[in-house]
Amino acid sequence: MSSPVIRTEKITRIYSMGSTVVTALREANITVHAGDLIALMGASGSGKSTLLNLLGLLDRATSGEYWLEETPVSTLRRDELAELRGRRIGFIFQNFNLLPRLSAWENVALPLAYRRGQYRHQDQLHRAQEALSRVRLDHRMGHQPMELSGGERQRVAIARALITQPAVILADEPTGNLDSNTGVEIMHLLKELNEEGRTIIVVTHDSNVARYANRIYSMRDGILKEGQTDHVAH
Ligand SMILES: Nc1ncnc2c1ncn2[C@@H]1O[C@H](COP(=O)(O)OP(=O)(O)O)[C@@H](O)[C@H]1O
Ligand SMILES: [Mg+2]
Asked: Is residue 232 part of a domain?
């Protein structure tokens, strides 16, 4: 089998605020292979976003090691982390995180625009159009986020995550702000992308969402376990 896309060994994240110390993640081990669709479940406050932010290189572990495509992340400088994140990580958030004054295609092209000088305007437009057509939104290229429905906004965010051809797409409760039918549409889209070979981790506390996954991890009080355990209440 090829080497994992993601592997962690006992990663821990401790938040300290004055005299208050929260161990949000305790010695977590997770392995993700190319082509996986993983559901990460657990109650609110159990540490799911903490783990996803570490895997997405938005934050650093307090201890432990994380290998992203065999690179030991703890050895990287801040600018190297940001560069690696931009190339290899696609992020999808609950609140979409689109820039309100940019059109759909400009939002999608942003990860390319951040790579100074590498992509000409025409290239950016062309690739954004391809990514938007993959999420069936090429007819909304010029619309601003305000002019789109919630489900359409999340599809723009998915197109933005796709445009760099990342090693892994990390989605933090991507259906959390959507009605249930629209949420199902978004999960079907993520499942399609997975069937095309994309590696995806989805954070959710919805067991319906978890049905789409080929593997499930569960989190409770900062402790990560593989499998769907009965402590994940609904
Ligand atoms: N930046 C932070 N500073 C301090 N505590 C935090 C921070 N982010 C999260 N926490 C705490 O860590 C725990 C896990 O939070 P989080 O990872 O956001 O959980 P989830 O995504 O599962 O709801 C919670 O107790 C939360 O209050
Ligand atoms: Mg969260």
From this structure: no
160 pocket-lining for ligand 1 (C-beta < 6 Å):
no
Does 42 contact ligand 1 (Cβ within 6 A)?
Answer: yes
Q: What residue owns the CA closest to ligand 1's atom 2?
A: 15
Decide if 65 is inside a domain. Answer: no
Residue 126's domain comprises 36-58+78-216
Q: What is the pLDDT along the chain (234 residues), one digit of tens a residue?
A: 689 999 999 999 999 999 999 999 999 999 999 999 999 999 999 999 999 999 999 999 999 999 999 999 999 999 999 999 999 999 999 999 999 999 999 999 999 988 777 888 899 999 999 999 999 999 999 999 999 999 999 999 999 999 999 999 999 999 999 999 999 999 999 999 999 999 999 998 777 777 889 999 999 999 999 998 754 444
Residue 209 CA neighbour count, 13 Å, CB half: 31
